[in-house]
Amino acid sequence: MKKGIRSRKHRNHFHRRNAPGSSPGTLMIDPQAPRPKIKVTAYSPESKIEDAVPDVESIRGYLSKWPVVWINVEGLGDAETIRKLGQLFDLHRLALEDVINVHQRPKVEIYKSYYFIVVRMADLRDRLETQQLSIFLGKNYVLTFQETESNRFDPIRARIHDKGGRIRQSGADYLAYAILDSCIDNYFPALEKYGEQIETLEDKVILRPGNQFVSEIHEMKRDLLILRRAVWPLREAVNSLIREPSQLITDETRIYIRDCYDHTIQVIDLLENYRDIAGDLIEVYLSSISNRMNEIMKILTIFTTIFIPLTFIAGVYGMNFKNMPELNWKYGYLFALGIMAALAAVMLIYFRKKGWLGASSRLGTF
Amino acid sequence: MKKGIRSRKHRNHFHRRNAPGSSPGTLMIDPQAPRPKIKVTAYSPESKIEDAVPDVESIRGYLSKWPVVWINVEGLGDAETIRKLGQLFDLHRLALEDVINVHQRPKVEIYKSYYFIVVRMADLRDRLETQQLSIFLGKNYVLTFQETESNRFDPIRARIHDKGGRIRQSGADYLAYAILDSCIDNYFPALEKYGEQIETLEDKVILRPGNQFVSEIHEMKRDLLILRRAVWPLREAVNSLIREPSQLITDETRIYIRDCYDHTIQVIDLLENYRDIAGDLIEVYLSSISNRMNEIMKILTIFTTIFIPLTFIAGVYGMNFKNMPELNWKYGYLFALGIMAALAAVMLIYFRKKGWLGASSRLGTF
Amino acid sequence: MKKGIRSRKHRNHFHRRNAPGSSPGTLMIDPQAPRPKIKVTAYSPESKIEDAVPDVESIRGYLSKWPVVWINVEGLGDAETIRKLGQLFDLHRLALEDVINVHQRPKVEIYKSYYFIVVRMADLRDRLETQQLSIFLGKNYVLTFQETESNRFDPIRARIHDKGGRIRQSGADYLAYAILDSCIDNYFPALEKYGEQIETLEDKVILRPGNQFVSEIHEMKRDLLILRRAVWPLREAVNSLIREPSQLITDETRIYIRDCYDHTIQVIDLLENYRDIAGDLIEVYLSSISNRMNEIMKILTIFTTIFIPLTFIAGVYGMNFKNMPELNWKYGYLFALGIMAALAAVMLIYFRKKGWLGASSRLGTF
Amino acid sequence: MKKGIRSRKHRNHFHRRNAPGSSPGTLMIDPQAPRPKIKVTAYSPESKIEDAVPDVESIRGYLSKWPVVWINVEGLGDAETIRKLGQLFDLHRLALEDVINVHQRPKVEIYKSYYFIVVRMADLRDRLETQQLSIFLGKNYVLTFQETESNRFDPIRARIHDKGGRIRQSGADYLAYAILDSCIDNYFPALEKYGEQIETLEDKVILRPGNQFVSEIHEMKRDLLILRRAVWPLREAVNSLIREPSQLITDETRIYIRDCYDHTIQVIDLLENYRDIAGDLIEVYLSSISNRMNEIMKILTIFTTIFIPLTFIAGVYGMNFKNMPELNWKYGYLFALGIMAALAAVMLIYFRKKGWLGASSRLGTF
Amino acid sequence: MKKGIRSRKHRNHFHRRNAPGSSPGTLMIDPQAPRPKIKVTAYSPESKIEDAVPDVESIRGYLSKWPVVWINVEGLGDAETIRKLGQLFDLHRLALEDVINVHQRPKVEIYKSYYFIVVRMADLRDRLETQQLSIFLGKNYVLTFQETESNRFDPIRARIHDKGGRIRQSGADYLAYAILDSCIDNYFPALEKYGEQIETLEDKVILRPGNQFVSEIHEMKRDLLILRRAVWPLREAVNSLIREPSQLITDETRIYIRDCYDHTIQVIDLLENYRDIAGDLIEVYLSSISNRMNEIMKILTIFTTIFIPLTFIAGVYGMNFKNMPELNWKYGYLFALGIMAALAAVMLIYFRKKGWLGASSRLGTF
Questions:
Q1: What is the ipTM for the molecules in this complex?
Q2: How far apart are CA B145 and CA B124, in angstroms?
Q3: CATH of span C294-364
Q4: Among A143-152, B153-162, C66-75, E320-329, whose mean pLDDT is lowest?
Q5: Choice among B192-206, B221-235, D72-86, D134-148 with the minimum mean pLDDT
Q6: Which pLDDT score, from 0 to 100, does residue A358 have?
Q7: In the CATH scheme, what is the homologous superfamily, with its name and number, of domain B292-364?
Q8: Domains of chain C: which residue ranges?
Q9: I need a surface site. Which of A176, B222, C260, C315 has the fewest CB within 10 A?
Q10: For a pLDDT cut of 90, what percent of chain C falls above it?
Q11: Pairing assessment for the beta strands E128-137 and E115-124 based on DSSP bridges
Q12: Left (φ > 0), alpha (ψ -120 to 50) or beta: where does A355 sit?
């Protein structure tokens, strides 16, 4: 079952639905994708409204009335809806294609009248997955596409609800920033989980190394690779939002995006940190295993090298030769036992001198 | 047999046919290369034509009549044909030499009246191979050279066939883009295969490590290296198509090539991902082997250390000394067996305390 | 207990207190943070004053009277105080948020009327921790925030006390430099400690490799990673202080900051050096372990291969067959012992030829 | 003997003949270097001449008469000759010193009236060595210095001989290009050899790992490092020939040098490829060794754990106690044998369940 | 004793004498540093003078009379002398501090009227150490500070002595170049030593791997790291001497410094080369050890698996059962010996088939 989950995820991660050679901009819908639900949130400093909208056409009304309109689409299972939204906002067909092919790298593409921003959101359930969030930022609207329904942006809606908040005083660019910032901040809990997992593994790997840890470490490294692919390009993307001159983003908002950039760097920092530590863990594991093996070998060697000569002596006096004078000695038996004891003592002293017996006892307190 | 295939491929990968010191631009034909077949596809928004052309001269007619002419040459086995094509389109002799020496890195070279683009196409049969595709993009023509006949570009021909399609409305630059894009998209199925192979190996390497996996992993890493050499330079090449100002490529097409660039980055991303994971796999394998060895050593040590002292005692009482009082005790035999049982019990308790027996039973469920 | 310390520290290192999606610039106080104590140090070339200040308002007086005012806040446990300071100096809310979220990377942010500098200070008690120091440098003031009370800056206060000192002759920019420089110089003792630890480990790992060293090395590498995260970004930050043209920093002070930059590079150099050596140590450890195992195996093999054939011979003459002529030979016993001695001698010569016995004796002097 | 060869080569690789502190530009001749032989090849589109020249002065005549003069010096064993050449062409003393100290990295130095180009030529005899080729390119001459006599440039002389060839139509810059290109192309056969060696090693290392492969791989990696040092700087050097504006090189020749640059990149590509694969080979070797050891340990463990208990039982019934009831049973012997058989069967079943016996038989077909 | 030396050196390598927070530019003298000796060498094309100078003041006379004055200070044990020199030449206090804190990285700092150049000189006695050389280059003087007395610069003095030499014809910049060049050339003998050590280790590690090599390799790698820290920054420093426009350095001297830069690159090249090879050596060592262990295990396994079954059979016929028919057979003894011989033969054939015996005999010639 676990296998199944992993396979599915992996395949997801690079399956492009359009066949090689097919026309670019083709909107090929994943048959399993949920049908889109459209939510419109429109606000001005004075007032705000939040509606579920049945069809694309009815959005037009909001756009003409409100200074900032946020259209949030959850689910990508209907090409028609997405095409209509593309027409309504005059979006490029390649951008629309990227909305639907949900395996894009994070990026910022600058079109004449809008920005197209792609972010990956960490989704930490059983195993790590990342979902694509596509953001179109125009003069007075923000259009977001999520793969599935979620309550991820409820805190932002709450801030819009709060009349005195800065978000209500600002334009669409600030809203886009808020959404972006919330996505980036969502990486911190995911990283926190990996931080804890690493600590647990660190303790376990040294105390009782076992094969299951190797696969745990390996899976964690793979997950961190997935996160890495999701976050590294984000850095460049967010940076281009700060640098590119544009009328869509005010200078004040740029300062906020700079903060966002800082957070991205922090995420990357932690990520690389964990990757380094996880990389070390395998080495630590191998060292622990080697050390264990060493201890086992010592025990085996101590036992074998002590008893093998003794057994040999016993064997000698178990021979059935007619003429073996010792056998008839009065204290022959004691003599034999004495030789054995002496041999054993010599061996033990030798091993103690080599520090093996000490090591072996240290092993007990291990 | 397998050896033979590999050797051949490898040698192919760096054998340059021209001897060092020979004149540049010499068209030295590989004697095993198939003879060229020329196909011309010409189209305007209103109409289109597709012909197999017997000789180079007859191409001239198409060039004067149609706004976009695509000349596709399959097979590089005839220097004469290629030289004539070079004269017809006024191509540089060094570019022609690169067409024939099919081990070029992907690149874009900008000549005055045309672009020379080299791409490597992934060819996933038994083992991975890459073939060279050479593209000349001029004002109103696209000239492509493939190493062998193939139906790789049938989807593009289908799109040309479709009268309403964007490709029919656009110029030669868009056609070149479509060809390039189809080549890049062809890497995804190849990568998909490696993704699956990695997953299979991940499971197997941990469950039952064996030497055959090492060579499988090693071969996969080598294949990924080949892919890497084919894709990394592509990034820079495609980027130069976007950046270089030129009248051959329209701004609209540049947006499409930017999409192409995105796909190249995605391919590189996945590739590096797989390389990282494959690199880890060897470590995982070594850890599994070490762990196995550890378990084997434990079993050996448990058996040996328990039985060796017992055997020694049996040996002692097998000695033939005249004067061994225990031998004549009534319950001497039971006494000896008792000592043995006690010794064995002590050892077992010791090993249980060290957790070896538990580990050993865990081993059973491994 | 040690576990607890480590866990806490780690968690600290990435716990962001603001929930994802919450408004930026929210001053969310860590409930365990100590309440702020404000100390004001103001000076001119002629005179100086040093006061503990009860509330923020009373700072205003110093600012109007003195050419350089240093406000040092120790403890971040009161949002109100920090907000008031922000209003007094007209600081950006994002900068204030960064003051309180004490897990920032070192950075320099340039605002219109002030610089915002974040540094991490090494704190070497039981285990390495880094604390955040936030510096605001304005026209005539330096405002610093520390996480906890400390006497770290006493040497600087002593230099301010010294009337003839350069610091008294200079402006706020020189004071900020002095604070920054003292933070960077504080890394040297921390590194010194790691240098000594590495030397100790180097000796121990080779002489008597044990599992505890693996975790020691691993912890040290992790600590060095923490230091690295604290120092690397500092380089860029300090460099931006040198490069950015600004009226807040005089050319003369820039020369001093260049010196500061040099020290940062030295810290980074040493750090990378130690990281390289520590990385090697694991390899050295593994080699030592392997070598030990080799010696153990040799001993085991020598003993076993010598005694097993002898024991076999003893076993043969211990058989109870009726018709075993040797048993009745007069010197049968001596004959058997002779064969055994001969066999043992052959084995010993063989091992000496292979150099094992020499190696084994060398092992004694090991 | 082999040792001697290697040592010599190595020492060569960094021995600088001038003592530290000695005056720069000192022409310190290697006493073992062969005496220089000067060959002059002069040509115009219409005619050509090729002479061995006894002394430097007689070159002057060629320079005044022919549009392109190639002076090729083979052997660096006479300071006087080289100094005179330096005077004749007005070469900088540091350049001349570099000609004689034949351990320069490839580089291009641009002087006012000439280019000074240093290339390393791969020399693949028993072991890899690289020789230095120094090229001076002036307005109408090319002056080349080789360490020893060779027929390396015969193909170029043949091309000069060919009246219709491009080389005869072009200037000195094209000749310099031809020489450079021939040097770079000479790396391909060397790489081909390493490619084949890697393939051989790949097969052998997995099938029958032995210690000799480790040193073979190690030597190959070292050779590849030597090649690397010879080729990497070449890339930058050739690139500077393309980029630097100069009247000595025509635009047409620049296109040819661009081709040369492509070849350099191809060489680097292959080189890095082989280095990666060779790096993997050590890992593969270690895995194979570990796997072998595992199999050996299994066999040892199977044998020991089966026979040790049996031998113990035999030992018990070999004891000489008076009162051992089983000894007098009628079928006591059979009873003992039965127990032994049962025990052995149990062990075998256990090992079969663990898959060891299967593995062991698989081992046979290994 | 060896320990002591190492510790001292290490500590040296990062001990900064000024406490964190102390005033910059404080001249804190190392109490163990030797007292400074000042030597003045002044020259013009026509004449030259060389004097030991008792105090700083008397230098003033030379400066006014001679076109080039070289003041060489050996020993840094007196703050007063250094401070006076600073006043005489108007040197920045931070530069003077760097002269005394002899753990600077190589660097070039450009002040208005002079250059401040720091280089590290390799000092190859028992173990590698680097000493700091501080150079001030002014209009008509070169001021150098060495840590201890040395005859390192005698060759340069000899060149000054030589009336016709270039150094006498040139200015202070050429003298500074000559000093710098001599420092860089001094790295070659140090590298030569490591090159030889590596070769020796390569042979030894494969032939008879022992633990002492691990620490030898480890120490060598650490030494190479020290060299690396001394040389890498030199590259950038020397490069800045070439690039920075300045009236202190003539164009002609720049060409010489370019040569110096080339040598630096060569040193770096060799260094990285040796680091790569040394890094490989540990792997080679581990492989050799693994291989040895494998051979030992084979011998152990062959012996054990052959003799254990034989001993078992002997044990069986040593049992004391009344009713053991074989014991009474006439040829029972021969029968038993026959079975044993057959078993041994079977085992030997099995091992020969597995190639172990061949391997074992190969082992003898190892």
A1: 0.79
A2: 19
A3: 1.20.58.340
A4: E320-329
A5: B192-206
A6: 57
A7: Magnesium transport protein CorA, transmembrane region (1.20.58.340)
A8: 23-167, 294-364
A9: B222
A10: 47
A11: antiparallel
A12: left
The one-letter code for the residue type at E162 is: D
Residue among E290, E305, E320 whose CB faces D299 most closely: E305
Please state, in angstroms and rounded to a whole number, the distance separating the CA atoms of residues D178 and D188.
16
Chain B partners within 8 Å of D283 (Cβ): 282, 286
Contact between A155 and C317 using a beta-carbon 8 Å cutoff: no
Query: Does B4 lie at the interface with D, CB-CB under 8 angstroms?
Result: no
The answer to whether the predicted template modeling score (pTM) of the entire model surpasses 0.90 is no
Chain C hits for A191, Cβ within 8 Å: 14
Model confidence pLDDT, tens digit, residues E44-71: 999 999 999 988 999 999 999 999 999 9
Instruction: Supply the CATH classification number for the domain D289-364.
Output: 1.20.58.340
The closest alpha carbon to D63, from D143, D178, D133, belongs to D143
Chain A residues within an 8 Å CB radius of B312: 307, 310-311, 314
Residue tagged 């009534």 (tokens): B330
Buried b (16+ CB within 10 A) or exposed e, D257-286: bebbbbbbbbbbbbbbbbbbbbebbbbbbb
- Chain centroid, CA C60 distance in Å: 40
A74: number of Cβ within 10 Å: 19
Which fold is adopted by the domain E1-13+22-167? Beta Polymerase; domain 2 (3.30.460)
Closest CA to E315 of E336, E344, E294, E335: E336
Query: Model confidence over A278-335: pLDDT tens digits?
Result: 888 888 888 888 888 888 888 889 888 899 999 999 999 988 888 888 888 888 889 9
Give me A306's structure tokens.
Answer: 């002590």
Look at residue A114 and tell me whether its pLDDT is greater than 60. Answer: yes
CA distance D11 to chain B (A): 30
Q: Is E331 on the interface with D (CB under 8 A)?
A: no
**Does C319 contact E324 at a Cβ distance shorter than 8 Å?**
no
Q: Over 80: is that where the pLDDT of C208 sits?
A: no
pLDDT at residue D358 tops 70: no
Q: What is the CATH number of domain B7-13+23-170?
A: 3.30.460.20
| Contact residues on chain D for E309, CB-CB shorter than 8 A | 303, 307
Phi/psi class of residue B142: alpha, beta or left (left: φ > 0; alpha: ψ in -120 to 50)? beta
* Integer Cα distance of C301 and C308 in angstroms: 10
Give which of D104, D179, D109 is closest to D141, Cα–Cα: D179
Which alpha helices (H) appear in chain C, and where do they start and end?
A: 2-12, 59-65, 79-89, 93-100, 154-161, 166-169, 172-185, 187-207, 211-243, 251-316, 325-328, 332-353, 356-364
Task: Give CA–CA dist C82/E4, Å, rounded.
Answer: 52
CATH of domain A290-364: 1.20.58.340
**Class for the domain spanning C23-167:** alpha beta
Partner B contacted by D197 (CB < 8 A): no
Task: Assign domain A24-167 to its CATH architecture.
Answer: 2-Layer Sandwich (3.30)
Average pLDDT of chain B is: 86
The third-level CATH classification (topology) of the domain covering D25-200+207-286 is Beta Polymerase; domain 2 (3.30.460)
Q: Which chains touch A (3 or more CB pairs under 8 A)?
A: B, C
pLDDT at D18: 67
Q: Which of B180-189, C202-211, D93-102, D321-330 has the lowest mean pLDDT?
A: C202-211
